[in-house]
Amino acid sequence: MKKLLRYLKGYELESLLGPLFKMLEASFELFVPLVMAQIIDVGIKAQDTVYVMKMGGLLVLLGIVGLACSLTAQYFAAKASVGFSTALRNDLFSHIGRLSYNEQDKIGTATLITRMTSDVNQVQSGLNLTLRLFLRSPFIVFGAMVMAFTVNVKAAMVFVVAIPALSVVVFGIMGISMPLYKKVQRQLDQVTLATRENLTGARVIRAFNRQEDEIHRFEESNDLLVRFQIFVGKISALMNPVTYVIINLAIVAVIWISGKEVDTGIITQGETVALVNYMSQILVELIKLANLIVSISKALACANRIGMVFEVESSITDPDGNRTAGGFLGSGAERNGDGHSGQNGKVCFRQVDFSYEGAKADSLSQIDFTASRGQTIGIIGGTGSGKSSLVNLIPRFYDVRQGAVLIDGRDVREYPLKELRHKVGVVPQKAVLFKGTLRENMRWGKKDATDEEIYQALDMAQAREFVDGKEKGLDLFIEQGGKNLSGGQRQRLTIARALVKQPEILIMDDSASALDFATDANLRKAIREGTKGMTVFIVSQRATTVRNADQILVLDDGHMVGCGTHQELFEHCEVYREICLSQLSKEEVQ
User: How much is the pTM?
Assistant: First the structure.
């Protein structure tokens, strides 16, 4: 939590004024029992209506001033806590965005969503309550004890005994409940995960008629969360009855002692009422403090969970002493007539081994090949053979375990990430579009792209026809995730988005799986003709998609079992031959 306090920077004044005005309100509240004592001992005793009205007016004034102080304190506390959570949430979002795929896979999407939403909200609420009540409650508790001593020392000794007893109860329950609240938040992660999987996989669940099974799985996870919450709730619920018992026993003791003092004339009846009122104030404030401590316990548990995310450092970092693209080209690479380096777009894999975090075996082993500028590289293999893993190493979404991936003769780990990813355009396996207009989506890779450039990319991606059919053109509104488009339309638009960027290296990771064979063929022809000088990697399970590539890589269980043209591989690579014979006719094979 201490590390997160830096997000209060800029709100130091509000963080000071909030508690200050709350303590000011508490000060006025401490005078109320004394005023009541005067009303009883002077006004009521003498039947002086004017005095009672005057002192009653003073009580109203104390109430109004206290209310004003309370509202002011609430304003400053709210401003500081909301500003704190805004800065924290923004920084957390940025930090998560900087984490590599490796760390995001390890932590889990559901956990990160919980940290961003529920945990940050809990910390915000805890900070707000802390600024308003954390100093006020102890101030009134000890203030009431001091005021009680000004009334009667003997009766005030009850306060000296009651307050430590109450403190033991409050802080003891807090010590037990804090670890339990951490378990509650961890179980909330599991409920969030189950919910997210059900929402994202709703169509699959319905297709296999597994609604009842998923409901049962969710209920199990949710019931466990409920049991955790009930258990910790029962412990926290002990707070109120135990404190009430102690306070009421203390009130009985105060009345017993002060009653004898009244009989002997040492104190008055009004002062006895004042002592009881002070004890009641302590009761109210300690209950507030107990509830506050529960909220603070939750907030601290959530703050620790958020802090754990901040402690995770990305394994993909920019190298020290970043060099610009211009500096690199000027240090030995010669430009040709079209403004490109003589080897721009050249990709080399040198004895690359790669494994995912926690995996027992490598996903890729001893991958070694070279793709020259302007070549089209087809990558084919069965499910789980490592096709996506291979192309994800080029833009450095993951780092190799051993060996090196080179672009233009330079290890990708030596590139600043911005420069590296400016060279590479990626069409992901899952077509992802964002809420907004078509024009806004197309400009993700190139912010200043003209409409003409966008239309050229749409033509190449075979998306122009259906875009024109929508009538709104580039102003077509796309819903979140592209839900108002078909799977094939989404895939073509994601391909067009990558083409608008005009990268040196284009990676198409099984991005035409939803297209029919005719559209797929037209797409490959358009890309081949329209990407002169661009190195293109096409990942596919279709032999027809990669057969015309300049070089085809055949993967099997993470190993490259073949590399060459279609004819070469069909003759000499058994895995490739089996794929072709399972998909193509004898005429198509030739």
Answer: 0.70
